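Entry:
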Amino acid sequence: MKRTVLLAAVGDVNSPATWSGIPFHFLQAARGAGLINQGLALSASGRDWRIRRLAWNARSVLKGDHHGGYQYSPGFLERLWERDRRRLGGSVIVNCFQLFPDSIVLDSTIEKWFFIDQTLTQLFDFYGERRKIGSSIAADAVAREREGYLASAGVIAHSRWAADNVIFGYGVPPEKVHVATPGASLDEAEYECWERERAKEPRRAPNRPEELRLVFVGKDWRRKGLDRLLAAFGLARKLGLRATLRVIGVARRAIPAKYRDCDGVEWAGFIDKRNHASEFINAVASCDLGCLLSRAEAGGIAFREYHALGLGALGSNVGGAAEHMIPEASLLMPPESSDEEIARALLALQREPERLLSMRRHAWERRRTALWRESISRLMTFWPHAPD
Protein backbone atom coordinates (compact mmCIF):
# COMPACT_ATOMS: atom_id res chain seq x y z
CA MET A 1 0.00 0.00 0.00
CA LYS A 2 1.29 3.44 -0.94
CA ARG A 3 2.12 5.73 1.95
CA THR A 4 0.59 9.17 2.38
CA VAL A 5 3.12 11.91 1.65
CA LEU A 6 2.69 15.18 3.56
CA LEU A 7 4.38 18.56 3.26
CA ALA A 8 5.03 20.67 6.36
CA ALA A 9 6.57 23.96 7.44
CA VAL A 10 6.23 26.35 10.34
CA GLY A 11 2.89 27.74 9.21
CA ASP A 12 0.23 26.66 6.76
CA VAL A 13 1.83 25.32 3.58
CA ASN A 14 -1.53 25.76 1.84
CA SER A 15 -1.06 29.53 2.11
CA PRO A 16 1.30 31.53 -0.16
CA ALA A 17 2.01 33.77 2.84
CA THR A 18 4.14 31.04 4.46
CA TRP A 19 7.90 31.34 3.90
CA SER A 20 7.83 33.47 0.74
CA GLY A 21 5.33 31.09 -0.83
CA ILE A 22 7.97 28.37 -1.33
CA PRO A 23 6.04 25.53 0.40
CA PHE A 24 2.77 26.61 -1.26
CA HIS A 25 4.17 26.52 -4.80
CA PHE A 26 6.13 23.35 -4.06
CA LEU A 27 2.90 21.71 -2.88
CA GLN A 28 0.96 22.77 -5.97
CA ALA A 29 3.63 21.44 -8.33
CA ALA A 30 4.35 18.26 -6.38
CA ARG A 31 0.69 17.42 -5.89
CA GLY A 32 0.07 17.93 -9.60
CA ALA A 33 2.88 15.47 -10.33
CA GLY A 34 1.51 12.96 -7.82
CA LEU A 35 4.47 13.27 -5.44
CA ILE A 36 2.75 14.80 -2.42
CA ASN A 37 -0.78 14.14 -1.22
CA GLN A 38 -1.48 16.89 1.26
CA GLY A 39 -0.08 19.96 2.99
CA LEU A 40 -0.26 20.46 6.75
CA ALA A 41 -1.52 23.66 8.37
CA LEU A 42 0.81 23.96 11.36
CA SER A 43 -0.30 27.40 12.49
CA ALA A 44 1.72 29.27 15.09
CA SER A 45 -0.28 32.49 14.97
CA GLY A 46 -2.91 33.93 17.27
CA ARG A 47 -3.18 35.26 20.82
CA ASP A 48 -2.30 32.01 22.59
CA TRP A 49 0.88 31.62 20.60
CA ARG A 50 1.90 35.23 21.31
CA ILE A 51 1.42 34.65 25.05
CA ARG A 52 3.47 31.45 24.97
CA ARG A 53 6.27 33.19 23.08
CA LEU A 54 6.34 36.11 25.51
CA ALA A 55 6.41 33.73 28.48
CA TRP A 56 9.20 31.66 26.94
CA ASN A 57 11.24 34.78 26.17
CA ALA A 58 10.78 36.04 29.73
CA ARG A 59 11.97 32.73 31.20
CA SER A 60 14.98 32.72 28.87
CA VAL A 61 16.04 36.19 29.98
CA LEU A 62 15.62 35.27 33.66
CA LYS A 63 17.89 32.25 33.07
CA GLY A 64 20.52 34.53 31.56
CA ASP A 65 19.86 33.57 27.93
CA HIS A 66 19.04 35.92 25.06
CA HIS A 67 15.57 37.08 24.08
CA GLY A 68 14.33 34.99 21.14
CA GLY A 69 14.60 31.53 19.62
CA TYR A 70 11.27 30.12 20.77
CA GLN A 71 10.62 28.54 17.36
CA TYR A 72 13.65 26.28 17.85
CA SER A 73 12.63 25.00 21.27
CA PRO A 74 11.33 21.44 21.89
CA GLY A 75 8.20 22.82 23.55
CA PHE A 76 7.30 24.97 20.57
CA LEU A 77 7.76 22.13 18.09
CA GLU A 78 5.76 19.57 20.09
CA ARG A 79 2.87 21.99 20.47
CA LEU A 80 3.05 23.03 16.80
CA TRP A 81 2.60 19.43 15.66
CA GLU A 82 0.26 18.39 18.49
CA ARG A 83 -3.02 18.67 16.58
CA ASP A 84 -1.87 16.44 13.71
CA ARG A 85 0.47 14.14 15.62
CA ARG A 86 -1.86 11.14 16.06
CA ARG A 87 -2.56 10.70 12.35
CA LEU A 88 1.05 10.86 11.19
CA GLY A 89 2.11 7.29 11.95
CA GLY A 90 3.14 5.41 8.83
CA SER A 91 3.26 8.53 6.68
CA VAL A 92 6.06 10.25 4.76
CA ILE A 93 6.68 13.87 5.80
CA VAL A 94 8.71 16.44 3.89
CA ASN A 95 9.60 19.25 6.29
CA CYS A 96 10.56 22.72 5.02
CA PHE A 97 11.86 23.59 8.51
CA GLN A 98 15.16 22.31 9.86
CA LEU A 99 13.62 20.71 12.96
CA PHE A 100 11.02 18.05 13.69
CA PRO A 101 9.73 17.63 17.25
CA ASP A 102 11.61 14.92 19.15
CA SER A 103 8.54 12.68 19.19
CA ILE A 104 8.59 12.51 15.39
CA VAL A 105 12.36 12.11 15.15
CA LEU A 106 12.06 9.05 17.41
CA ASP A 107 9.04 7.60 15.57
CA SER A 108 10.47 4.98 13.22
CA THR A 109 7.09 4.50 11.49
CA ILE A 110 7.34 7.97 9.97
CA GLU A 111 9.65 8.44 6.98
CA LYS A 112 11.18 11.87 7.39
CA TRP A 113 12.59 14.17 4.71
CA PHE A 114 13.82 17.76 4.80
CA PHE A 115 13.62 20.44 2.11
CA ILE A 116 15.77 23.35 3.32
CA ASP A 117 17.41 26.47 1.96
CA GLN A 118 20.18 26.36 4.57
CA THR A 119 21.12 24.62 7.80
CA LEU A 120 20.56 26.26 11.17
CA THR A 121 24.33 26.69 11.47
CA GLN A 122 24.29 28.74 8.29
CA LEU A 123 21.21 30.65 9.42
CA PHE A 124 22.70 31.43 12.83
CA ASP A 125 26.11 32.48 11.54
CA PHE A 126 25.56 33.63 7.94
CA TYR A 127 22.36 35.55 8.74
CA GLY A 128 23.60 36.64 12.18
CA GLU A 129 20.81 34.97 14.15
CA ARG A 130 23.13 33.44 16.74
CA ARG A 131 23.83 36.77 18.40
CA LYS A 132 20.10 37.40 18.68
CA ILE A 133 19.11 34.13 20.32
CA GLY A 134 22.29 33.30 22.21
CA SER A 135 24.88 30.55 21.88
CA SER A 136 23.26 28.00 24.22
CA ILE A 137 19.87 28.05 22.47
CA ALA A 138 21.60 27.87 19.08
CA ALA A 139 23.85 24.99 20.13
CA ASP A 140 20.90 22.97 21.45
CA ALA A 141 18.93 23.58 18.24
CA VAL A 142 21.85 22.52 16.02
CA ALA A 143 22.36 19.33 18.06
CA ARG A 144 18.71 18.36 17.60
CA GLU A 145 18.88 19.36 13.93
CA ARG A 146 21.75 16.90 13.44
CA GLU A 147 19.76 14.12 15.11
CA GLY A 148 16.84 14.84 12.81
CA TYR A 149 18.97 14.73 9.66
CA LEU A 150 20.60 11.45 10.70
CA ALA A 151 17.18 9.93 11.47
CA SER A 152 15.76 11.04 8.12
CA ALA A 153 15.51 9.22 4.81
CA GLY A 154 17.04 12.22 3.08
CA VAL A 155 17.81 15.94 3.11
CA ILE A 156 16.98 17.97 -0.01
CA ALA A 157 18.87 21.25 -0.11
CA HIS A 158 18.10 24.23 -2.33
CA SER A 159 21.78 24.54 -3.27
CA ARG A 160 25.08 22.70 -3.21
CA TRP A 161 26.22 25.40 -0.77
CA ALA A 162 23.65 24.16 1.77
CA ALA A 163 24.06 20.47 0.87
CA ASP A 164 27.80 20.58 1.54
CA ASN A 165 27.16 21.98 5.01
CA VAL A 166 24.72 19.14 5.74
CA ILE A 167 27.40 16.63 4.72
CA PHE A 168 30.56 18.17 6.12
CA GLY A 169 29.12 20.17 8.99
CA TYR A 170 26.60 17.62 10.28
CA GLY A 171 28.12 14.32 9.23
CA VAL A 172 25.17 13.20 7.13
CA PRO A 173 26.13 10.51 4.58
CA PRO A 174 26.42 12.06 1.10
CA GLU A 175 24.06 9.49 -0.41
CA LYS A 176 21.26 10.88 1.79
CA VAL A 177 21.78 14.49 0.64
CA HIS A 178 20.31 15.86 -2.59
CA VAL A 179 20.01 19.24 -4.33
CA ALA A 180 16.83 20.60 -5.94
CA THR A 181 16.69 24.35 -6.50
CA PRO A 182 13.15 25.69 -5.97
CA GLY A 183 11.18 27.41 -8.69
CA ALA A 184 9.77 30.92 -8.97
CA SER A 185 6.91 31.78 -6.62
CA LEU A 186 4.57 32.73 -9.46
CA ASP A 187 0.93 31.78 -10.02
CA GLU A 188 1.10 29.09 -12.71
CA ALA A 189 -2.15 30.04 -14.48
CA GLU A 190 -1.27 33.74 -14.60
CA TYR A 191 2.24 32.92 -15.75
CA GLU A 192 0.96 30.81 -18.63
CA CYS A 193 -1.48 33.59 -19.56
CA TRP A 194 1.38 36.10 -19.59
CA GLU A 195 3.50 33.73 -21.64
CA ARG A 196 0.72 33.30 -24.23
CA GLU A 197 0.37 37.06 -24.54
CA ARG A 198 4.12 37.38 -25.06
CA ALA A 199 3.96 34.70 -27.76
CA LYS A 200 1.49 36.86 -29.72
CA GLU A 201 4.03 39.67 -29.98
CA PRO A 202 6.01 39.93 -33.25
CA ARG A 203 9.15 37.80 -33.25
CA ARG A 204 12.00 40.24 -33.39
CA ALA A 205 15.23 40.89 -31.56
CA PRO A 206 14.86 42.97 -28.38
CA ASN A 207 15.50 46.65 -28.91
CA ARG A 208 18.25 48.43 -27.10
CA PRO A 209 16.55 50.18 -24.20
CA GLU A 210 16.80 53.95 -24.28
CA GLU A 211 16.52 53.80 -20.50
CA LEU A 212 17.63 50.85 -18.36
CA ARG A 213 14.71 49.57 -16.27
CA LEU A 214 15.80 48.02 -12.97
CA VAL A 215 13.58 46.23 -10.47
CA PHE A 216 14.10 45.08 -6.89
CA VAL A 217 11.80 42.51 -5.23
CA GLY A 218 12.17 41.78 -1.52
CA LYS A 219 11.02 42.59 2.01
CA ASP A 220 14.15 42.61 4.18
CA TRP A 221 15.69 45.75 2.73
CA ARG A 222 18.92 45.59 4.72
CA ARG A 223 19.81 41.92 4.20
CA LYS A 224 18.68 42.12 0.58
CA GLY A 225 20.95 45.15 0.04
CA LEU A 226 18.35 47.65 -1.13
CA ASP A 227 20.33 50.45 0.53
CA ARG A 228 23.42 49.39 -1.44
CA LEU A 229 21.42 49.33 -4.66
CA LEU A 230 19.88 52.78 -4.02
CA ALA A 231 23.26 54.31 -3.18
CA ALA A 232 24.90 52.85 -6.30
CA PHE A 233 21.90 53.71 -8.47
CA GLY A 234 21.93 57.34 -7.31
CA LEU A 235 25.66 57.60 -7.93
CA ALA A 236 25.37 56.01 -11.39
CA ARG A 237 22.64 58.48 -12.39
CA LYS A 238 24.88 61.36 -11.39
CA LEU A 239 27.53 59.87 -13.65
CA GLY A 240 25.17 59.70 -16.61
CA LEU A 241 23.14 56.49 -16.20
CA ARG A 242 19.77 56.71 -17.92
CA ALA A 243 17.70 54.38 -15.78
CA THR A 244 14.73 53.89 -13.49
CA LEU A 245 14.41 51.58 -10.49
CA ARG A 246 11.13 49.97 -9.40
CA VAL A 247 11.08 48.80 -5.76
CA ILE A 248 8.54 46.07 -4.94
CA GLY A 249 7.97 44.80 -1.40
CA VAL A 250 9.48 47.67 0.61
CA ALA A 251 7.69 50.87 1.54
CA ARG A 252 9.57 54.12 1.02
CA ARG A 253 9.08 55.06 4.68
CA ALA A 254 10.84 51.83 5.80
CA ILE A 255 14.16 52.90 4.28
CA PRO A 256 16.60 55.26 6.07
CA ALA A 257 15.82 58.87 5.20
CA LYS A 258 19.00 59.41 3.16
CA TYR A 259 17.81 56.88 0.55
CA ARG A 260 14.17 57.96 0.24
CA ASP A 261 14.54 60.80 -2.25
CA CYS A 262 16.71 59.15 -4.87
CA ASP A 263 15.65 60.35 -8.33
CA GLY A 264 14.30 57.79 -10.77
CA VAL A 265 12.92 55.43 -8.11
CA GLU A 266 9.35 54.15 -8.22
CA TRP A 267 8.14 52.83 -4.85
CA ALA A 268 5.57 50.18 -5.88
CA GLY A 269 5.13 48.87 -2.34
CA PHE A 270 3.79 45.39 -1.57
CA ILE A 271 2.00 43.59 -4.40
CA ASP A 272 -0.03 40.57 -3.26
CA LYS A 273 1.03 37.71 -5.56
CA ARG A 274 -2.07 35.69 -4.79
CA ASN A 275 -4.78 38.29 -5.32
CA HIS A 276 -2.86 40.44 -7.79
CA ALA A 277 -0.67 37.87 -9.54
CA SER A 278 -1.05 39.46 -12.96
CA GLU A 279 -0.11 42.89 -11.60
CA PHE A 280 3.03 41.45 -9.98
CA ILE A 281 4.09 39.57 -13.11
CA ASN A 282 3.62 42.60 -15.35
CA ALA A 283 5.39 44.91 -12.89
CA VAL A 284 8.49 42.72 -12.98
CA ALA A 285 8.33 41.56 -16.60
CA SER A 286 8.22 45.13 -17.93
CA CYS A 287 11.75 45.72 -16.61
CA ASP A 288 15.16 44.72 -18.00
CA LEU A 289 17.29 43.79 -15.01
CA GLY A 290 16.30 42.28 -11.65
CA CYS A 291 18.54 43.29 -8.76
CA LEU A 292 19.29 41.69 -5.37
CA LEU A 293 22.55 42.82 -3.78
CA SER A 294 22.16 40.75 -0.63
CA ARG A 295 24.65 40.82 2.21
CA ALA A 296 23.58 37.25 3.03
CA GLU A 297 21.44 35.00 0.85
CA ALA A 298 20.73 31.27 1.08
CA GLY A 299 19.24 31.38 -2.40
CA GLY A 300 17.02 34.18 -3.61
CA ILE A 301 13.64 33.25 -5.04
CA ALA A 302 13.57 36.70 -6.63
CA PHE A 303 16.30 35.52 -9.04
CA ARG A 304 14.05 32.66 -10.12
CA GLU A 305 11.21 35.12 -10.72
CA TYR A 306 13.42 37.52 -12.66
CA HIS A 307 14.63 34.75 -14.98
CA ALA A 308 11.20 33.11 -15.35
CA LEU A 309 9.98 36.47 -16.66
CA GLY A 310 12.88 36.89 -19.07
CA LEU A 311 14.98 39.38 -17.12
CA GLY A 312 18.69 39.51 -16.60
CA ALA A 313 19.87 39.57 -12.99
CA LEU A 314 22.37 41.55 -10.93
CA GLY A 315 23.25 39.87 -7.65
CA SER A 316 25.80 39.35 -4.91
CA ASN A 317 27.84 36.17 -5.07
CA VAL A 318 26.96 35.03 -1.56
CA GLY A 319 25.67 31.75 -0.12
CA GLY A 320 23.61 29.79 -2.61
CA ALA A 321 22.55 32.82 -4.65
CA ALA A 322 24.57 32.01 -7.76
CA GLU A 323 22.94 28.56 -7.93
CA HIS A 324 19.53 30.24 -8.26
CA MET A 325 20.69 32.23 -11.28
CA ILE A 326 21.17 31.44 -14.96
CA PRO A 327 24.90 32.16 -15.41
CA GLU A 328 24.61 33.54 -18.97
CA ALA A 329 21.78 35.83 -17.88
CA SER A 330 23.42 37.15 -14.73
CA LEU A 331 25.99 39.60 -13.49
CA LEU A 332 27.52 38.52 -10.17
CA MET A 333 29.14 41.06 -7.85
CA PRO A 334 31.50 40.25 -4.97
CA PRO A 335 29.65 40.74 -1.66
CA GLU A 336 32.16 43.39 -0.59
CA SER A 337 31.58 45.52 -3.73
CA SER A 338 31.51 49.24 -3.04
CA ASP A 339 28.81 51.65 -4.20
CA GLU A 340 31.25 52.91 -6.84
CA GLU A 341 31.89 49.40 -8.18
CA ILE A 342 28.18 48.62 -8.41
CA ALA A 343 27.56 51.97 -10.11
CA ARG A 344 30.29 51.20 -12.66
CA ALA A 345 28.69 47.83 -13.38
CA LEU A 346 25.37 49.56 -14.15
CA LEU A 347 27.09 52.14 -16.35
CA ALA A 348 28.88 49.34 -18.21
CA LEU A 349 25.53 47.80 -19.14
CA GLN A 350 24.50 51.15 -20.62
CA ARG A 351 27.75 51.43 -22.57
CA GLU A 352 27.53 47.80 -23.74
CA PRO A 353 23.84 47.29 -24.51
CA GLU A 354 24.58 44.08 -26.40
CA ARG A 355 25.60 42.49 -23.12
CA LEU A 356 22.26 43.26 -21.51
CA LEU A 357 20.40 42.07 -24.60
CA SER A 358 22.37 38.81 -24.49
CA MET A 359 21.49 38.34 -20.83
CA ARG A 360 17.82 38.85 -21.61
CA ARG A 361 17.93 36.47 -24.56
CA HIS A 362 19.47 33.74 -22.43
CA ALA A 363 16.90 34.35 -19.68
CA TRP A 364 14.03 34.14 -22.16
CA GLU A 365 15.32 30.99 -23.81
CA ARG A 366 15.78 29.26 -20.46
CA ARG A 367 12.92 30.88 -18.56
CA ARG A 368 11.15 27.57 -17.90
CA THR A 369 14.21 26.19 -16.10
CA ALA A 370 13.38 28.70 -13.34
CA LEU A 371 9.89 27.22 -12.79
CA TRP A 372 8.78 24.58 -10.31
CA ARG A 373 8.25 21.97 -13.02
CA GLU A 374 12.03 21.92 -13.47
CA SER A 375 12.49 21.48 -9.71
CA ILE A 376 10.04 18.57 -9.70
CA SER A 377 11.87 16.94 -12.61
CA ARG A 378 15.09 17.12 -10.60
CA LEU A 379 13.37 15.74 -7.49
CA MET A 380 11.98 12.82 -9.50
CA THR A 381 15.52 11.57 -10.18
CA PHE A 382 15.91 10.45 -6.55
CA TRP A 383 12.44 10.56 -4.96
CA PRO A 384 11.45 7.01 -3.85
CA HIS A 385 7.70 7.69 -3.80
CA ALA A 386 7.18 8.73 -7.40
CA PRO A 387 3.82 7.69 -8.89
CA ASP A 388 3.63 4.50 -10.95
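The two ends are 12 Å apart (CA to CA).
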